């Protein structure tokens, strides 16, 4: 009987995979399985994973024949998982010894659908504690109750799939799979759906996962066309939230967050390749026009002057130009 399934996608992370695999070994138990999903790596990662399958207790290697991205790799792991509980780790991050056992104990004690936990962000030698933006700790809460307020950081603004653990009943309800093919922001529709539709969760104060930032191969560091998948991700958030019985309450948060992400990308547009930058402006303008305009006006009126001005400026782009550039 597998108690916990850990889904770990890897793609060209030969520099960091040894730390990840070593930390899995330090978390191994007889009733844990580690699903190592090789997303068609082209460096030395596959050989490391083959060796880990032999040496790390509970490890099982699954290899993609073509690269599908993080969302698709996680879905492959979910489909293969057999545990009563499920969680994630990225192939360039690592864990403190006993991390999963501690989260599992909390899950069993609290009896909720999922738990969320804090993490340590690692940029080079710098370490920063990032806390889940929910103040009430160690008690069972209703996930949709921590979506609001719209103008503050809340549970849906802490989207990291690996910062928690999830009961299998969520997977059985279709709440743990990611939107196939999303290359970035794949966790945004996922975290919103989880908070709208799961029944219970808790946040625990525990630091056991180390999130590596500033990796050169990470999509957060690359200004190519894949970055623009955030538009498709947030369109999905808006579309699904609009169907919620409490859409009137929740849409202002979804629209404001979407606007903030658009503004962030426009504010650092120089890191994008020139054709991608043009497409970003065009797709952002089109996205702003697709949003509920009354909710958008309220969101822009509530934002600081710099961000609101940047968004209003791009929204005024001619629609024909936007459509042509986004094609």
Task: Give an account of the 3D structure.
The structure is a single chain. With 327 residues, the protein is α/β, with parallel strands linked by helices. Helix content is 43%, strand content 17%. The chain contains 12 helices and 9 strands. It has helices at 17-25, 45-55, 70-80, 99-110, 168-172, 187-197, 229-242, 247-267, 274-290, 293-302, 305-315, 319-326, and strands at residues 4-10, 32-38, 59-63, 85-88, 94-95, 114-123, 126-130, 164-167, 201-213. Strands 1, 2, 3, 4, 5, 6, 7, 8 and 9 form a 9-stranded mixed beta sheet that branches. Helix 7 runs antiparallel to helix 8 (247-267) and helix 8 (247-267) packs antiparallel against helix 9 (274-290). The longest helix has 21 residues, at 247-267. It is globular. The N and C termini lie far apart (50 Å). The relative contact order is 0.11.
Salient structural properties:
single chain, about 325 residues, alpha/beta, 12 helices
């Amino acid at each position: 009987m597998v108690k916990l399934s850990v889904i770990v996608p890897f793609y060209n992370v030969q520099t960091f995979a040894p730390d990840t695999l070593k930390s899995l070994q330090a978390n191994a138990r007889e009733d844990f399985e580690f699903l190592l999903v090789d997303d068609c790596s082209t460096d030395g990662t596959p050989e490391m994973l083959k060796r880990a399958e032999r040496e790390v207790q509970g490890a099982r290697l699954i290899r993609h024949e073509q690269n599908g991205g993080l969302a698709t790799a996680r879905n492959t792991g979910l489909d293969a998982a057999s545990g009563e509980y499920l969680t994630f780790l990225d192939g360039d991050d690592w864990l403190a010894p006993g991390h999963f056992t501690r989260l599992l104990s909390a899950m069993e004690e609290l009896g909720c659908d999922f738990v969320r936990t804090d993490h340590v962000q690692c940029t080079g030698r710098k370490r920063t504690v990032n806390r889940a933006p929910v103040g009430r700790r160690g008690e069972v809460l209703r996930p949709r109750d921590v979506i609001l307020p719209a103008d503050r950081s809340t549970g849906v603004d802490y989207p990291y799939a690996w910062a928690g653990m999830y009961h299998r009943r969520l997977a059985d309800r279709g709440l743990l799979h990611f939107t196939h093919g999303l290359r970035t922001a794949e966790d945004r529709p996922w975290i919103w759906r989880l908070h709208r539709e799961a029944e219970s969760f808790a946040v625990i104060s525990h630091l056991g996962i180390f999130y590596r930032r500033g990796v050169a191969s990470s999509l957060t560091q690359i200004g190519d066309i894949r970055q623009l998948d955030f538009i498709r991700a947030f369109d999905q958030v808006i579309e699904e939230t609009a169907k919620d019985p409490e859409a009137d309450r929740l849409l202002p948060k979804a629209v404001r967050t979407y606007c903030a992400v658009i503004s962030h990308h426009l504010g650092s547009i120089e890191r994008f390749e020139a054709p991608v930058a043009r497409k970003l402006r065009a797709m952002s303008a089109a996205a702003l026009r697709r949003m509920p305009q009354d909710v958008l006006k309220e969101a822009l009126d509530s934002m600081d002057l710099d961000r609101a001005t940047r968004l209003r400026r791009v929204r005024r782009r001619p629609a024909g130009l936007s459509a042509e550039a986004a094609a």
